[in-house]
Write a structure and sequence with these properties.
- The complex is a heterodimer.
- Chain A is built from 24 helices and 18 strands.
- Chain A is α/β, with parallel strands linked by helices.
- In chain A, the strands form four sheets. In chain A, strands 1, 4, 5, 6, 9, 10, 11, 12, 13, 14, 15 and 18 form a twelve-stranded mixed beta sheet that branches. A two-stranded antiparallel ribbon of chain A has the order 2-3. Chain A has a two-stranded antiparallel ribbon with strand order 7-8.
- In chain A, strand 2 and strand 3 form a beta hairpin.
- By secondary structure, chain B is mainly alpha-helical.
- Chain B has one domain: MetI-like (MetI-like fold, Orthogonal Bundle), CATH 1.10.3720.10.
- Chain B has eleven helices and no strands.
- In chain B, helix 6 crosses helix 8, helix 8 packs antiparallel against helix 11 and helix 10 packs antiparallel against helix 11.
- Chain B is globular, with a radius of gyration of 23 Å.
- The N and C termini of chain B lie far apart (55 Å).
- Classes of the chains: A alpha/beta, B mainly alpha.
- At the A-B interface, helix 3, strand 11, helix 23 and helix 24 of A face helix 3, helix 10 and helix 11 of B.
Amino acid sequence: MTGRRIAKRMEKMKRRLCSGLLLCICVCLFMPMKSVLASSKEAGEEGSGERDVQTVTLRVSNWEEYIDLGGWDEEETIDLDSGDIIGENSMIEDFEEWYYKTYGIKVKVEYSTFGTNEDLYNMLTLGDTYDLVCPSEYMIMKLMAEDQVVPLSEDFFDTRDNNNYYINGVSPYIKSIFEENEIQGRYWSDYAAGYMWGITGIVYNPQVVSEEEASSWKILNDPKYHRQITIKDNVRDSYFAAMGAVKSGLLTSEEFLNDPDYKKNLEKEMNDTSRKTLAEVQDYLQDVKNNAYSFETDSGKADMITGKAVINLQWSGDGVYTLDQADEDDFTLAFAVPEEATNIYFDGWVMLKNGINGDAAKQHAAEAFINFNSRADNVIRNMYYVGYTSVISGGEDRRIFEYADWCYGAEESEEEVSEYDVGYFFSKDKEGKDYVITAPADQVYRQLFAQYPTEEAISRSALMTYFDEEQNQAINQMWINIRCYNIHDVPVWAWAAAGAVVFVLAAFTIRALKKR
Amino acid sequence: MHKYRFSRKSLGVPYALFLLIFVAAPLFVLIYYAFTNGRGQFTLQNLTGFFSDPNTLGTLFYSFGIAFATTVVCLLLAYPTAYVLAASRLRAKSVLIMIFIMPMWINFSLRITALKEILTWLEGSLAYHPFLNTVLGMSYDFLPFMILPIYTTISKLDGALLEAAKDLGAGDAQAFLRVTLPLSLPGVISGVSMVFLPAMTNYVVLDMLYNSTYIMGSLIGSYFSAYNWHGGSMIALILLGIICLFTLLTGGMEEENTRGGALL
């Protein structure tokens, strides 16, 4: 069924492009008219009073392209056995309507987007105010450490309230991670509600690279694939991968793996910022830079599909996208999770102090926004639109599992199939005979694997926490050391050439001035 | 209160306001950040830091290298083109010029993407010659900025001067070297300043052509994403200083040359 999903996606792309153009034209034509109309309307309403005071404004900032904006075609309908799901309006409009229907209060969502966690942080520092934002886990930790966030209310965790879709639907696996991790004695779960999650891994071309090779971070500086490897242009991801390679021996040793405190030790190793490790990582990444095709911000996906690169350090969500796109060109790519460790990451909702500012109505709307986006049908809409994996498993509501099966389950005609167990994510007791997808055999190391990694792969996952100012500075300095051209490396001939140029220019200038 | 009178000066108000809000005010913010530390105290450490860090100095050197090579390539391509264009007696001259300006109408990232494919086809993989690719990309991008000013100055040259030179016994080559070349220098200088300075900071070209080494623009960006606004601002300020110095020098020469032309 993956084929069907892809074809629909293509259609959607085209449609989005057309409707985008159309919208531009319409806006250009009607904007002036509309504003005239609106102002006259406002003037009319101004007198009519008290009711409007009830309107709550909610300022939300999220990643770009990270929520369903609606407008699906009829053909895009996700036809689950339990009913059809389709995104007609944007999630934001739907939320406003739902909130009014459910709580009788009007809410106006001011939705904006950001590009990177650092951009968001800089925007906040510059004085932009938001009520609800969706950064990654390390930025959530930073905001928590700086006391910038408001804890979620008790009502939010009340499982008896049927409108509390988050607490009733969040995956038990993710929930336990949020409950176990703390910063300065405060637990994540008290402040943050997850949205999407994923792990880092390697997208590779199975015709050139074997699965075994792709299963170690050490492949990133493998001279065999000279100039065919791309790496995320992002210090945290590169640092994690490089540590995996540098510490490969330790991380895969029997002793380390069988230690009862394995998980704890792993997390400690993968958050190591000691001077020795930094130096080793710098050497390793220098090798990687000299051997790789390039560091990439966004071109990595396309370069895998066109075959310019055969190995790409990638986030699982984008991995799914890359594999989907490649399938369209009848080009097969695969996804691997290195045996040393993988970085598990989350994007989650937090409420900001200077936005909420003690306003209970606002906080209620913010929490309702999280809940609405955690309702099974909305989760499916967002996942379909965005391509990442939601932290919501649905609880009693089986539709999210049904959706995974709809995406990846094998057709009856399929010859080679595998039983793929995702029980750890969907069920509380982990004994999930109920949560097994019968998938085409190759999905075990392709999209399904990237979307819902196996429990075995997840067992090697480690969180990368936020670094304090000192560590952050050391890591960024290491990154600059790798990326910059060091003045000591300038060869003699270059100095000579520079000298000659300066001399000629100086002579020329002096002559010109003398003439005067 | 006397009555408001519309004068010619009032026409300058919108631009003056624009300058104030979008140029002058941010500049003060920049200076403030460049000379303070995280706690808001005055410091010169950002300045001394810049000149004692082998990475920033190396990046400055590398950026100069790219900008210089780009300028030379542009100049070598643009001067003959502009000369031929200006000297040709074709009636369809404007069409010809159009052909050279047309690339400017196409979005630059689109052009670089096209170049990327061409270079990949020629070189096999872009990864082997990052410096060369960057220079080619920048030249492709900035070439029209070099052609136009040179073309304008040459086409404005008084033909009588060349005839006079020939009358006085100068050959073609001599007439070019002694008359046309010196008189076209103002065009060359403004072309150079329009190519050299942007080439030092346009890191998008490097990103798109897979050059993983930082230039000044990307270095500033990396400081900002590490929340080090102070260091980043200082680099921006130093670049601004270099630009000012450059403009002063070339401005002086340009003035000299126009005067020389008048004397001749």
